[in-house]
């Protein structure tokens, strides 16, 4: 479930607002998205995957955390924007990162070509 929009990292691009399939976010008065309907979050991670600034944290659970997460601790642990890195998008992307989410594609590094 979406738990955090980092005001310090957000660049007000509204990508999260655009890609959220259930309309969880509203654009705030200052341009920074706000979590307006947290209960509607499907924990699909689309917002975190598309955020170019790694400003979002989606907890891999269907219910809100009992207390708001500590942004500094999330950043230090690598969890802030971690899903994006895990799937090979954005900062930290390395050749072959796509192998983490599926088999090597024909003609790509690591592919077996006969």
Fold and architecture overview:
The protein has one domain: Alpha-Beta Plaits, CATH 3.30.70. Mean pLDDT is 82; it is low at 95-102 and 110-114. The strands form two sheets. It has a two-stranded antiparallel sheet. Strands 2-3 form a two-stranded antiparallel sheet. The protein has four helices and four strands. The chain has helices at residues 15-19, 46-50, 71-77, 82-86, and strands at residues 2-5, 25-27, 33-35, 56-58. By secondary structure, the chain is α+β, with helices and mostly antiparallel strands.
List keywords for this structure.
114 residues, alpha+beta, Alpha-Beta Plaits, two-stranded antiparallel ribbon, 4 strands
CATH class: Alpha Beta
Strand order of the largest sheet: 1-4
Provide the number of structural domains: 1
User: Count the strands?
Assistant: 4
Task: Give the end-to-end Cα distance, rounded to a whole number of Å.
Answer: 44 Å
Beta-sheet strand percentage? 5-15%
Helix-strand category: alpha+beta
Radius of gyration: 16 Å
* Helix content class: 10-25%
CATH architecture: 2-Layer Sandwich
Q: What is the global morphology?
A: globular
What kind of sheet is the major sheet?
Answer: 2 strands, antiparallel
Query: H/E element string?
Result: EHEEHEHH
Low-confidence stretches: 95-102, 110-114
- Looking at the structure, the CATH topology is Alpha-Beta Plaits
Mean pLDDT: 82
GO molecular function, one term: metal ion binding
Keywords: 4Fe-4S, Iron, Iron-sulfur, Metal-binding
Protein name: 4Fe-4S ferredoxin
Organism: Planomonospora sphaerica
């Amino acid at each position: 479930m979406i738990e955090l929009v980092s005001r310090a990292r957000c660049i007000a691009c509204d990508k999260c607002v655009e890609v959220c399939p259930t309309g969880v976010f509203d654009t705030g008065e200052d341009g920074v998205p706000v979590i307006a309907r947290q209960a509607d979050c499907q924990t699909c991670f689309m917002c975190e995957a598309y955020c170019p600034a790694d400003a979002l944290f989606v907890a891999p659970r269907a219910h809100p955390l009992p207390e708001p997460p500590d942004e500094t601790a999330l950043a230090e642990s690598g969890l802030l924007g971690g899903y994006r890195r895990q799937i090979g998008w954005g900062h930290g992307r390395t050749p072959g990162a796509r192998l983490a989410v599926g088999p090597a594609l024909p003609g790509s590094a690591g592919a077996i070509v006969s």
